[in-house]
Amino acid sequence: MTNAVEFKNVTKFYPRYHEITGGIKRLIFNLPSAIKNMREYKYLALEEIDFEIQKGETVAFIGRNGAGKSTTLGLIAGVLEPTQGSVVVDGRISPLLELGGGFHHDLTGRENIKLNGVLLGLTLKKVNEKMDEIIEFSELGEFIDQPIRFYSSGMKARLGFSVVAHLDPEILLVDEVLGVGDVKFREKCKNKIHSFKEQGVTIILVTHSVSEVVDLCDRAIWIDNKRIKMQGNSIEVCKNYCEALGVPFKEP
């Protein structure tokens, strides 16, 4: 099998902007030293990360908050660039990162489907062809022709998932979004993820839910303190992760 994603010796730093917090006057009068400090003082988000994800795999990144999981997804999505190393992605990315985050509040649900579909790479004709399926999946009924500003956060999440779920993705990035909506809708979302697996879509998941990892994923990659602690079979990785946290692990 060929790789959908490949990280080679990837390190990611973010600059620290604490010098600016002293005020613009201080920044101007100490500009040379401020620039030097911003270059020297950096926040390490990932350090020397190496992994491969084959096409058609479903892989989860697990770890504590701040470990570097979302930075990894950002690098895969192409919204971030590595400071060192290389990131190679082979396939069209469909992100499920912040459901409803890109909606325009003055547009209706229907209009936002068109806007988001086009922004995510579909033609307007293709979006219109899928419109009825997307609306039916969202279960928003008459609200679909109401402005988004009247939607609850759960309704926005439903619409966001429904749009991405009908994009025919090649590589699907999922960041902590399978817990949205009521129990029935969450189950529908998970069933959709399973159907993507059956179609051979590469799925990359970030979640704190160990049960989701075991249920959905072939492999897991545990990131701890900016580095890969362990990677392999999802059950084995999750078991070791739970032991490190001191929480019980339920065998599937």
What is this structure's SSE topology?
Blueprint: E1 3-15, H1 24-29, H2 31-40, E2 42-54, E3 58-62, H3 69-77, E4 84-89, E5 93-96, H4 109-119, H5 124-138, H6 153-164, E6 171-175, H7 183-198, E7 202-206, H8 210-216, E8 219-224, E9 227-233, H9 234-245
Parallel strand pairs: 3-7, 3-8, 5-6, 6-7
Antiparallel strand pairs: 1-2, 1-4, 8-9
Helix pairs in contact: 4-5, 4-6, 5-6
What is the overall pLDDT average?
Answer: 85
Biggest β-sheet description: 6 strands, mixed
Helix proportion range? 25-40%
Radius of gyration: 20 Å
Distinct helical segment count: 9
Question: What order do the SSEs take from the amino end to the carboxyl end, as H and E?
Answer: EHHEEHEEHHHEHEHEEH
What does this molecule look like?
The chain is of the alpha/beta class. Strands 5-6-7-3-8-9 form a 6-stranded mixed sheet, sandwiched between helices. A 3-stranded antiparallel sheet has the order 2-1-4. Strand 6, helix 7 and strand 7 form a beta-alpha-beta unit.
Can you describe this structure in just a few lines?
The protein is of the alpha/beta class and 252 residues long.
Keywords:
single chain, 252 residues, alpha/beta, six-stranded mixed sheet, 9 helices, 9 strands, globular
